[in-house]
Automatic annotation (TrEMBL):
Keywords: Aminotransferase, Pyridoxal phosphate, Transferase. This is aspartate transaminase. It comes from the Bacteria. InterPro entries: Aminotransferase_I/II_large, Kynurenine-oxoglutarate_AT, PyrdxlP-dep_Trfase, PyrdxlP-dep_Trfase_major, PyrdxlP-dep_Trfase_small. Gene3D superfamilies: Aspartate Aminotransferase, domain 1 (3.90.1150.10), Type I PLP-dependent aspartate aminotransferase-like (Major domain) (3.40.640.10).
Amino acid sequence: MNPILSALPTTVFETMSQLARETGAVNLGQGFPDDPGPEDVRRKAADAVLNGWNQYPPMMGLPELRQAAATHYKHWQGLDLDPATEVMVTSGATEAIAGALMALVTPGDEVVLFEPMYDAYLPLVRRAGGIPKFVTLTPPHFGLTEEALAKAFSPKTKVVLFNNPQNPTATIFGEADLALLADFCVRHDAIAICDEVWEHVVFDGRRHASVLGRPEMRERTVKISSAGKIFSLTGWKVGLVMAAPAIMRVLAKAHQFITFTTPPNLQAAVAYGLGKEDGYFDGMRADFQRSRDRFASGLRDLGFTVLPSAGTYFLNVDIAPLGETDDVDFCRRLVTESGVAAIPVSAFYAEGAVRNVVRFCFAKHDATLDAALERLAHRRPR
């Protein structure tokens, strides 16, 4: 067995979800919405299965989807992309991340990671032979500092894996952060793999800015997006990858020998969806923001310290004011005693550097959120 993978424990997501199933708890752990997603996009996929092409699509993706992606990102983020040479379709963003690491990292290269981080990053970096170097972000604001970057970057830095908006912290890194990161990448001749799957799930009037849009980063950035997050269809696993041609040629070779293609009916539906009017995207954000505010208000009324949430499906709470010092133990008691499943944020750190933050998913129906709040009101963990 490969020790990098065989030594991995059961993920905290599966552990908490299993406990939720066993106890009948309200599951606010895993990040998926209750809503089935936009009906017109789903109908487009169904029609494409019945009446469209169901054999191998082009390895790089359907031309119509690649063109739709270029048009979409020109409109929303001001990016000028050649759909023929700078856009590729993958079977989800995680495949895109894995392929990018395999394509760009050779054994011994250093890879800068920002923790807390999506749980797939670290094993994928190690499987590619990379040496992880951590920038540890801390609550309540989880901000970047020049000092922290200076400690992580070195002459051996090859790749930076950067998630913005960030899961699990619900942080959006602003213009000053992106400029600081770009400066370090240019100085150290590093490539930025930018996981931007939450780019449309941003609140309070914010608009996402891609690292790929910075002139000094145009030739050294891989932008990764997710149709599953854009359309609240997390099971679809359709990823979009954008990079300059010299990088894309190598990324395409990795993709060819991982999944090769992505279901053509889903690609056709995503191409249609990316062309939807601005009102769809604005309305989607407004709906999630309303759920965020509803749940945050309820948590505060119950005495929880709620941390800022600028994007994603997540709210974090600081449990230290409750006298709690172990988020894993707190989450276990939360699900077994209170009937609500959440995720300990320490699971997103390589060595659990922060143990006082718990993550809830608010992308749920009002009835689901209200049921969770009612349980927390009457059965707070001991």
